[in-house]
Fold:
Amino acid sequence: MSDSASKDSPEQAEFREYCRTWIEANRPPDPTVRLPLSALEIMTTEQLSYLQAWQKAAYDAGLVGCDYPAAVGGGGRKDCQRVANEEMLAARTPYFPNIIGLGMAAPTVFYHAQDELKERLLPRLFSGEDIWCQGFSEPGAGSDLASVQTFAERKGDKWVINGHKVWTSLAHFAEWMILLLRTDKSHKYDGLSYFVVPIRAALGKGVTVRPLIKITGETGFNEVIFDNLEVDDSYRLDELGKGWQVAMTTLLHERGAGELQTPRAGGLKSKGSHATTAYNLIDFARSAIRDGHPAAQDPLLRDRMMQQLICEAGLAQNQRRARVPALLDHPMRLQLQNKLLASEISQDTAALALEVAGASASLYLGDPNAPAGGQWNLAYMNSYGMTIAAGTSEVQRNILGERVLGLAKSK
Amino acid sequence: MAQPDNFGFGEEAALLKASARKFFSEKFPTSDLHALVAGDHRPERGSECLWNSKLWQEMVDLGWTMLAVPEAAGGVGMPAVAVAGLAEELGRAAFPCPLLGTINATYVLAACDSAQSALAEIAGGCSASLAITNQAGSWSPGDTDVVWADGKLSGTAWYVQDARKVDRLLVSASSTAGVGLYWVAADAPGITLVPDTILDLTRDQAHVSFDGVAAEEVSANGLAALAEAMPAVWTVLAADIVGAAEWQLQTTVEYVATRQQFDRPLGFFQAVKHPLVDVMLQIDQTKSLVYNAACAIDSEPERALQYAHMAKASASETAAYASGRSVQCHGGIGFTWECYVHLYFKRQKHSQMLWGDAAWHRARLADIVIGPLAPAGS
Ligand SMILES: Cc1cc2nc3c(=O)[nH]c(=O)nc-3n(C[C@H](O)[C@H](O)[C@H](O)COP(=O)(O)OP(=O)(O)OC[C@H]3O[C@@H](n4cnc5c(N)ncnc54)[C@H](O)[C@@H]3O)c2cc1C
Structure:
């Protein structure tokens, strides 16, 4: 019995059994194309279709959106998404392609949209038939998100949108976008409003999506330009001028600190994919010859690998302790650390792997002699995506210092 | 065996932790600690043993030294997670007393085969300390300079914690049959206790010489008993470090929130704010690793060693980092004898090295996880 299974409620225990049996019988065949490290780097329709078919199957079986009410396409269960996630992670299934939809758009729509809109949008979001993207960042508004300038002007019961979003992951495949914009130029925070926008339907008619190339050479994020796009007022979430509050729901869930568990499968633990974990690094070190000697026998590298292993274990145990109120002094303290720790630890692990690789760390994807096919280099570079996106590490430290330690706000 | 998701930290453990916090904050605020141990600031003040034995007696009466003693031996039989919770509060108060030494002894004794009467003495209120370290300061349990021959102990045990406060010593000694463990009164004839002069004002330490001292053999297979008990010894000390680090963080945060420079509270500046966040991150990881290790002692013993190495390695790093930042962020006042920060700074520097520093624990962990290091030259 797994650790978590031992404290399942009867509903969870029964559901766990169901998930396990279903996954066993319905695991998708291995892909015929190389899958990227995460959904944020999906480049081709082949990659996308394979992953979409898997998400749809998992949704149809009830493993996605388990804790949302049935009326919006959910499973109507209680605290069962975590169970499904654990089983999908343990079975090393593929990951879901619609991660921005599941992790950010779904809870935001659920908490802030009118019933009719929820019922229309959420089922196709959960099934992965509609891919979603997040239009927050702009050329002039990154960490200082509330300074976004994309503007919606009222025209009867419609809005006319003009502006420029950047780094928009998955926009090249997305049907829908969650969009933070300005409806009032005279108030920084209270001038913001929040919309859902059917961008795919508007391609070439007010919306342009252009890929941006990442440091790795991969695509995956884009710039999105709005040129007099008209959208209906019914696509507005919550009240006019409440965009910042709605965005907080999005960001809280993005950082893993929200109420609703994000459906998560396989991820970095997917079969055949490359996981930036200390155990993987140790395995690599066992076979790596560095400067003519086995890397696993170098006392300094051993010490540093243990540092990574201990940090990873500390993070995993933080997540466990976050559910034990008697061992917490501040309700948000551990949740708000999650993203910062996870991204920095995997960055350090990948960096250490390159040192373990020694001279062969110079070899990249496609070189026949590259260790792990060049994946450590890829992982190391992509790790900066994680320490920059979703609130940079510096911004996370501001948030922790201000909200948890109560130190004076830097802005 | 599997660990329960909540670390097995139940209602009893939570109550104990809360009542310990209340006990120390009401009866022994930091100002009392400073008044008690920091009276004499002279660098050559020599060795002192300053403590509040009346409060210690209250702790004994509350049953805190017997928490880990099995019920069958007259103890409370609480799980290691509960003991860790208590140790965390002890560290937060930096209370000078032989609680950890005595609890350590109960863990070792519980792993010995003929320790009933020794455990009964602890249950009856005796305090104790481990005398298991050699002059070289080896952290490998079992490396001892004391010899057991003809029913007598001879030689010297080094780095004995809180030696002047305790009633009993649990001594490791080698004989022709291997390493055994011996139980002896701290003031038995033939024992000479030489106090060390130490940095930490909240502990005392000594080396203890045995000159043909009669003692009770509690285990002939001391290595096995120590191997079984050391994970608990490391984990409980790591818990103490977590509590002390929490004090350092909280005290420093309060200071930088009030002290103004450049027309702003110091905590506004990211060069102050971010390192304090990093202290918090380290404390939290260590704390989570401590409860994981403690829970393994209770319900996943096959993993206890590995998890305890993680906990103490992490704790030693936290002790060092939290201490450095607590002094630095206080500025000049933090560099004074008057400011309470130095009490914890010194306790943490002591705890950092006690029973193995971070690198030592990581090296042991690597031996388990990666496999042993090949001998040099091979
Ligand atoms: C892989 C990837 C995917 C992304 N996907 C999306 C997406 O789907 N949708 C979307 O809207 N956005 C996305 N982003 C954008 C991301 O949210 C921003 O890059 C991020 O918020 C940082 O903003 P910026 O790039 O403008 O950097 P800046 O804000 O200009 O920051 C530059 C540097 O200055 C530091 N800095 C800034 N402000 C402070 C401060 N107050 N204190 C201390 N240091 C500070 C930052 O930490 C950083 O190191 C993605 C980014 C990446 C890398």
Q: What stands out?
A: Residues 92 and 247 of chain B are 6 Å apart (CA to CA). Chain B touches chain A through 50 residues (CB under 8 Å).
